[in-house]
Write a structure and sequence with these properties.
By secondary structure, the protein is of the alpha/beta class. It is 36% helix and 12% strand. The protein is globular, with a radius of gyration of 16 Å. The mean pLDDT is 90.
Length: 154
């Protein structure tokens, strides 16, 4: 979060109920959604996401929706690309291997160096949501292969 301009993170509403951590997160203007109601969640993302972008925030969306184990690939949701398509804002793809040091379903973190790659802006004007999503997914998958290659060459 320290590397980028002010951000509003898309997250599941139940995370805000966690004592201390969730309460602190609530002060950071997140877009908290109920994933059990996908249509309502998408509507809320589009409404609040547009507002946050106009306020100067970057909207951070994890396209796979949840953390997955390193080496696994999840299905990319089109919600972020739909927001970009509707607002005309660019998409900045980011890839990292933090999952190697903070495993899924674990509160404990392990020591290590996180590799991070920030991609070039994907300009969304004239692109369909599906095309935006495909470009972001392709860049992230390629970046993850590069990160994995760096790890294997050590």
């Amino acid at each position: 979060m320290a590397l980028l301009p002010p951000q509003s993170v898309l997250l599941k509403k139940s995370l805000l109920w966690l004592p201390f951590w969730g309460w602190a997160m609530a002060t950071l203007k997140p877009i908290a959604i109920d994933r059990s109601s996908p249509k309502q969640a998408l509507s809320q993302l589009l409404k609040k996401g547009t507002l946050r972008l106009k306020e100067g925030f970057w909207v951070v969306i994890y396209p796979e929706g949840t953390r997955i184990a390193p080496g696994e690939e999840g299905k990319f949701s089109a919600s972020g690309s739909l927001l970009a398509h509707r607002t005309g804002y660019p998409v900045i793809p980011i890839a990292h291997n933090a999952g190697e040091f903070w495993p899924r379903n674990s509160f404990l973190k392990q020591a290590g160096v996180i590799q991070l790659k920030i991609g070039p802006a994907i300009m969304t004007e004239g692109l369909k949501s599906k095309e935006i999503n495909q470009q972001a997914e392709a860049w992230i998958k390629n970046a993850m292969l590069e990160i994995e290659s760096l790890k294997n060459n050590k």
